[in-house]
Amino acid sequence: MLRKRSMCWVQARQRALHNTKISQLKGHILKTPIPKKKKMASIMVVTDTGDERTPLLRDSQPEYSGGGTVYSSPPSAEESRPMNSNNPKQRLVSLDVFRGLTVALMILVDDAGKAFPSINHAPWFGLTLADFVMPFFLFGVGVSVGIVFKNVENRLATTKKVILRFVKLFLLGVILQGGYFHGRDHLTYGIDVGRIRLMGVLQRIAIGYLLASTMEIWLVSNTVVNSTVAFMKRYSFQIGAAIMLGLLYIVLLYCLYVPNWAFDVSSLSIILPTSVGANTQTVHCGLRGSLEPPCNAVGFIDRFLLGEQHLYQRPVYRRTKECSVNSPDYGPLPPNSPAWCLAPFDPEGILSSLMAAITCFVGLHYGHILVHCKGHMQRVIFWFISSLPLLIFGVPYSKPLYSLSYMFITAGASAVLLTIIYFIVDIKCLRKPTAMFQWMGMNALIVYALAACDIFPAALQGFYWRSPENNLVNLSEVLLQSLFHSQKWGTLAFVMVEILFWGAVAGFLHMKRIYIKF
């Protein structure tokens, strides 16, 4: 009996000690102050430890450090979840869709523009669907630069990488658009080095990328972004540099004296009309501030620095009423046409590329908003607020000159389009309807090179039956024209099939996790 009572006393003592410890622990927890949640600002700084920033939603594939083919592991289950606005390692799917849509638009206007001149580039002044393609590319480059170079620890090493990529992209543009490849319906290749075209689409993109990346690496202050004023202060040097670049363009365009100039007609790779007499044609200028085709400062600088033999030999102003009886399409020269109708002019020239680079800076600003704003709708609101002033700028619109008004309205349209795609794809997560454009955007460079530069169609035309005209490309287009009983609508259907084909190719590369980047 005594032993049983002692055991009961021990057990009771143990329970008492256990309850005392629990009470002390509860008291300690209750006395510990709970930190209050701080109210988040509408703009925040996202930090990173690497030299270069990983684009949003790119955790399923590595950052490309150079050229070549990149293989990556299959996407994880996290990739299919809705995007977390505060996660800097996620990929911005809407930017891929935007880029892929731009490539598809380029294929459409290049291949269907002959059948529908209204969607082709405006002959000189004006704005058509084709005139939005280049600004879309440049704007997308700016947004990407704003995402990639958020924090840079080693500025010199990063600048070397940027310069190397600029050189590779520029040289690729010279190879693709310098005249070496003669395009569709021409089973030849090769170019006289003395007449190679030096500027082009990829060259302009390379220049914009170089200037925007250099600004993002070197012209960002250490201001902590916790308000709109701090946001503007952090990037004030970039804004100032963009304004100075725009002022330089305006001063040269309107103040540079353009003298009379002459060009050699016999050196042009076109069929000359019988009305052209002497081999040398003189264009009379002797003025300043002209925006017309013959006497503008953009063409004068290109002729002076590059030489007329290295310019684009079939400029768009040959489709004007002064130079074509089929205007707004190419055609024979009308009677008493001016001499400058036969002169070369590069729509991607040096001076116009400086203004085009400002489109990259506008995209860079939108990339900054994407990085610093914490929520989806805040980004959308800031993007729309920034877009509206760009859309109300006045005329004249001139894509060959890349006029100030053209830069503003196309950059504003680029921003509005990206905002809409961002709302649909990254906020509402409606990604299946845009999957093809996403695939094309993830391999935009290879699709552009093979499709938009006509390398693949020209190579395919090399296999023909008895006559070069009997090839798969031409026969497919003729078949669709017969089915639609219309040359125009058959051509449009052929181009749509072509876009679907390249979407399938890009989808196959995405399925194999192959991403080709230069």
TrEMBL record:
Q: Does the keyword Membrane apply?
A: yes
What is the name of this protein? Heparan-alpha-glucosaminide N-acetyltransferase
Region (Disordered) residue ranges read 52-88
Enumerate the transmembrane spans: 92-109, 129-150, 162-181, 201-225, 237-259, 350-368, 380-398, 404-425, 445-465, 489-509
Its keywords, alphabetically, are:
Membrane, Transmembrane, Transmembrane helix
